[in-house]
Write a structure and sequence with these properties.
- Helix 1 packs antiparallel against helix 2, helix 1 runs antiparallel to helix 5 and helix 2 runs antiparallel to helix 3.
- Helix content is 77%, strand content 0%.
- By secondary structure, the chain is an all-alpha fold.
- It has a domain of 102 residues: de novo design (two linked rop proteins) (Up-down Bundle), CATH 1.20.1440.
Amino acid sequence: MSPLIIILLLVIFLIPVFIYNNLIRKKNAVDNAFFSIDVMLKKRYDLIPQLVETVKGYMQHEKGLLTSVTELRQKVMQDNLSANERVKLDNQINTVLQQIFVSFENYPQLKSSENFLRLQGAINEAEEQLAASRRFYNAAVNDYHNAIETFPSSLIASAAGMRRKEYFNIPDSEKSASAININ
C-alpha cells in the first residue's frame, strides 16, 4: 500500500474522531456551566425559606405566591430532575419571585425591616451571580447547538444521540415588563 493511501485513510478516520471529540468538549462545557450555575441556584433556593418566613407575616394577600415559590423550590430540589427540567422550574421560580418583589412595594413596614433588608441584599447578590452564570451557560449551550446542528458534525452528533439543551430564558410574558428594583 502506498504511503499516500495510508495517509488518506488515516485522515478519513481521524476527521470523525476529531469532530466527535470536539462535540464531547462542547457538551461537557454545557454540563460544567450548568453545574456551576447549580451551585448558585442552591444558594438562592436556600434563601427562599428565609424570604417566605420574613415576609409571610406582612404579606397576607400574597399567600398564594409564597406557597407557589415554596412548592417550586421543593420540586427543583429533587435529585432525579434532568438539567432541562431544572431550567424550566427555575424559570418558573424567577417569575414567582418577581411577582413577590413587586408586591413588596405595597408593604412599607416590610421594606424598612432590618431582617428583610439584609435578606434582600443577599437575594440581590445571588441574583447577580445567577445572571452572570446564566449568560455563561447560555453561551455554552449556543456553542453546543451550533456544533450539533452544522455539517458535518451534525451527522456525528445525531449518531451519538446528542440533543438540544434548554436555555435559561425569560418567559415571553415578562419580556415587556419594566425592570424591577427591589432595593
